[in-house]
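Section 5.1 Outputs to date
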Amino acid sequence: MQWKNLGERTVYENPWVTVNMADVELPDGRHLDHTVIRLRPVAVAAVVNAADEVLLLWRHRFITGAWGWELPSGGIGAGEEPAGAAARECEEETGWRPGAMRHLLTVDPQPGISTSRHLVYWAQGAERVGDPDDDFESSRREWVPLASVPDLVGRGEVRSASAVAALLMLHRLRLG
């Protein structure tokens, strides 16, 4: 059963997001207006050290009113390689320069309404290069044991869909 997008009109746009209304034809021939949020792809960095700890950010998200652990992440610039964007975001947000980035997984957190695609990369180790450029993004940055990931997720201390998926995948790969 496949829905058909017969066309879209933009209702709002800025450099980060475009909100469209799509004319969607359902398999039975009915039509409906469906909101589509178009976003640029996001690069996510998961860095694990030799002690099987992962570099995380503790931050508050005003939209949901929640505190939680997250992985460094951000939008991929025009013409930028996703792995390079993940490394850049990690360094800007943590002050740690990761080693070689390898693709771990790709997540579409809200495929029913958004084109947001999160490309997660991971690195073995990082070099401390100074204070983070974007220190306003988190209250603290810590190396957290991968062994604690299932409990953190279970307690709701990791809420970002891409972080949950990446951390549980790394937990299984490294410790499973």
